[in-house]
Design goal:
Order of helices and strands: HHHHHH
Strand content: under 5%
Distance between the termini: 48 Å
Number of strands: 0
Structural class: mainly alpha
Number of helices: 6
Largest sheet: none
Oligomer: single chain
């Protein structure tokens, strides 16, 4: 299956779930995907790659790969830089988003 056919199939499957594919352009190049944002939030809270992977049902190496993309998009090189960088983008902590139980 060619790349165009695969992309069309993925688009149709996303559409069937009610989701929409993100439009990519130069303006959105540094935007975090929902998966990247969630991983960045968990790393920001001090979770290890293994802990993040277990919570999201993905491997630790996959978490590492996503964090590499996050770091590149944010222009940072360590987890310590996540807090100020995410705050500077207006991304609030997950703890502050969820109502207390």
């Amino acid at each position: 299956m060619g790349a165009e056919a695969f992309a069309e199939r993925a688009r149709r499957e996303l559409q069937a779930t009610g989701e929409k594919a993100r439009k990519r352009s130069d303006d959105t190049r540094t935007d975090l995907t929902p998966q990247e944002e969630e991983i960045a939030q968990l790393a920001r809270e001090g979770r290890t790659n293994s802990e993040i992977g277990a919570q999201l049902f993905i491997g630790g190496r996959t978490v590492e790969w996503h964090l590499g993309k996050v770091f590149a998009k944010l222009g940072i090189s360590s987890r310590r830089e996540l807090e100020p960088s995410l705050r500077g983008r207006g991304v609030r902590s997950w703890r502050n988003r969820c109502p207390a139980r």
